[in-house]
Amino acid sequence: MRRAAIVLVAALTAACGSSSTPSSSSSSAAPTTATLSTGPAVPPVPGIEAEAVRLRTDEALGGQVQTRVTDTGDAPFTVTSVALDSPGFAPLPPRAETASYQPGQVIDLPTPFGAAVCDTAAQPAAALLTVLRPDGTTEQVRVPLSADVLDLIHEQTCAAEAVLAVADIEVGDLHDDGKGSTGTLTLTRQSGSQAVTVTRLGRSVVLAPTVADLPLRLASGAGSASSAISFTPATCDAHALAETKKPYVFVLGVTLDDGDEVALDLPLDQGDKDALAAMVQRVCG
To answer: Where does the signal sequence lie (predicted)?
Structure first.
């Protein structure tokens, strides 16, 4: 079993948006955007514009966005590396690229982002680009990055980290039960005294999970709470089983006291995923 991971809800896809560096957030309540510190505005770079977007493939992979670069000038150039420069995310090394732009051309560059820094806003952000000019010269440029999707990623991530600072969420003892797979969903207090409630559990394309005692509530001051959790195939359609990109992603809705619902991934390690895959093959085979 493992600690619950953070999920960025499907709303990010409509916005068409791993580092080991820890987040600076350790409180039980994520700061609001209005209270976060920010940096100075990023000056424009003539001939280049950039926007952060998140595509379905980015959502499936996790930990990256696309830097959508546009050549707004009258000369071509080539981008040979890209990195995100955002005060709200830990920096990562540049990602090598070979993307050649003509005037007016737009190309998306996959760009990893680091762990959220929860006491600092995600914007103003920049795209750090290594640019090769037609005369052979190379320069490092810091292009202003339109990045509303980063704000959303940052907000969702830090809200989830605030929940996990209060309670760990684990799935254990997952095993076949004849009709599907059954295990135990456990909330274990890490800090504070806030009540933690699992309000809902979503399905994937191919699997339907059920929590026996929903809502599952870790009462104020209590040390732990648990419930049986089961999984059965949601479909045995061969096309759906073969094409789904996230068969084992199940979104938990969780609240602290009477606060807003926060979305988290149901924690499943590779052994759990292998067990679920074998169960689907057995039931659907």
So the answer is: 1-29
- Note down the domain range covering 235: 159-284
Distance CA 97, CA 276 (A): 37
Average pLDDT, the chain: 88
Kindly state whether residues 125 and 235 are assigned to the same domain: no
Q: Region 29-40: what's the mean pLDDT?
A: 62
> What does the pLDDT average to over 95-104?
98
83 within some domain? yes
Note whether 268 and 208 are same-domain residues.
yes
Residue 102 placed within a domain: yes
Helical residues (DSSP H) of the chain, grouped into ranges: 11-14, 56-61, 148-166, 238-243, 270-284
Q: Indicate the residue type of 201.
A: L
Answer whether 0.90 is exceeded by the pTM. no
CA torsion sign for 208, 241, 249, 183 is: positive
Given a cut of 80, is residue 197 above it in pLDDT?
yes
CB within 8 A of 181, min separation 6: which ones? 174, 175, 230, 231, 275, 276, 279
CA angle 256, 261, 264 (to 5 degrees): 95
Please indicate, yes or no, if residue 226 is contained in any of the structural domains: yes
Instruction: Give yes or no: residues 171 and 280 share one domain.
Output: yes
**What is the rounded average pLDDT of the residues 248-272?**
93
Are 190 and 83 in the same domain? no
The 3-state DSSP class for residue 238 equals helix
